[in-house]
Amino acid sequence: MGSLIAYIVKRVLLVLPTLIGVITMIFFLVRILPGDPTHLLAGEQASPEIIERLRAEFGLDRPIYEQYVLYLKSVLTLDFGTSYRTYTPVVVEIMSRFPNTVILALSAMLIAIFVGIALGIVSALRVGSVIDRAVIIFTSIYVSMPVFWLGLLLIYFFAVQLKILPAGGIGSPAHVVLPSLALSHTPLSYIARITRESILETLSQEHVRLAVARGLPLRSILINHVIRNSLINVVTVIGYFTGVLLGGAVVTETVFAWPGIGRLLIESIAARDYIMIQGIVIFIAMIFIFVNLIVDITYRIIDPRVRL
Fold it and tell me: How many domains is the chain partitioned into structurally?
C-alpha cells in the first residue's frame, strides 16, 4: 500500500511540469499564427489609434515574455482570459460547450466498449473461423474509414434516405445517435482487437490450462479466468480514448453541427481568437492528463502483474 501511495504521489507531482510545458508550447505556437486579432476585431478600415487601443486592452502591446508570465499565472489559477471575439471569459465559453462534448464522448465510448468487447470475445472464442475473419476484416476497414466520410454516409442513409434520425444539431436523444456512431468507430475497432488478442494470450497461460485439466465448467473458466483477466488490458485503451474524445471531436462536431468544444475550437481558429484557442487546447490537455492519471492508477490497482 505504501508503494502504491508513493506511485500516486509521483504521478501527481509530474502533472504540474507537464501542464506548464503544454501551456508554454501552446502560448508560443499560437503567436506564430499569421494575422493580428486586433485588426480582425477593429476591421480593415480601423485607424492606428483604435488598433493600439485594442492591443493595450488585451495586453498585446507588452513584451512577449511579460505576456507569457502573466498568462501562465492566470492559467494556473484557472483564469484563461477573455475572448477577443465575444468579450466573454474563456472559461465560461468552454464550460457552456463542454457538457455537450461529454454527452457525445460518453455515448460514443459506451457504444465502443459494449460492441468492441463483444466482438473481441466472439472473435477470440471462434479463432480461425469465418466469424473471426469477418470481425478482423470489419474492424480493419472500420478503423481506416475517415470520420468525415463515415459521418456523411451515416447522414445519407439514416437522415436523407431512411429519414429516421436527424442529420445534425442538438435537442433530443435522437440527435446524439449518428455522431456517436461516427465517433465510436476508432475506439470500437481498437477495443475489439485488444480484447481478442488479450483473450487469446490468456487462453495459452498455465493457470487456464490447469483449470481445464481440473474439469472446471467451461463457463466458469471463461468468465473467472479468461475474460476477467483479459479485460485488464482493455482498461488502458478505454481510458486513452475517453481522454481523447472528452477533448472534443473537431471533425465529428463540425459534420453534425454539434455545439461542443471541438467546434468552438474551429470557430476560434477562423476568427484568430488566440486567447480562446489557447484556453481550449490547454483545457483539452488538462482533461487528457487527468484521465490518463486515473487510468494509470487504476491499472496499478487492478492488475496483479504490476501491483506494487
Answer: 1
pTM for the model stands at 0.82
Over the stretch 246-289, which tens digit does the pLDDT of each residue have? Answer: 876 888 998 998 999 989 998 888 877 888 988 998 898 888 88
> What pLDDT is recorded for position 306?
55
Interhelix angle 130-144/90-125, nearest 10 degrees: 160
**In 3D, which of 42, 197, 45 has the Cα closest to residue 119?**
197
Pick the closest to residue 80 from 95, 65, 66 (CA basis): 95
Position 104 scores a pLDDT of 93
Q: Whole domain around residue 166: which residue ranges? A: 95-302
Conformation bin of residue 79: beta by default, left when phi > 0, alpha when psi is -120 to 50: beta
Which residues share a beta bridge with 89?
82
Residue 230: per-residue pLDDT: 76
Q: What residues pair up with 205 in beta bridges, in sequence order?
A: none
pLDDT tens column, 224-233: 767 777 777 7
In-domain check, residue 61? no
Residue at 117 is within a domain? yes
d(CA 60, CA 245): 33
The contacts of residue 28 (CB under 8 Å, 6+ apart) are 68
For residue 127, tell me if it sits in a domain: yes
Q: Are 293 and 12 in contact (CB under 8 A)?
A: yes
Check which CATH number belongs to the domain holding 204 and give it: 1.10.3720.10
Phi, psi of 257 (to 5 degrees): 50, 45
DSSP secondary structure letters along 105-144: HHHHHHHHHHHHHHHHHHHHHTTTSHHHHHHHHHHHHHHH
pLDDT tens digit sequence for 124-138: 888 889 999 999 999
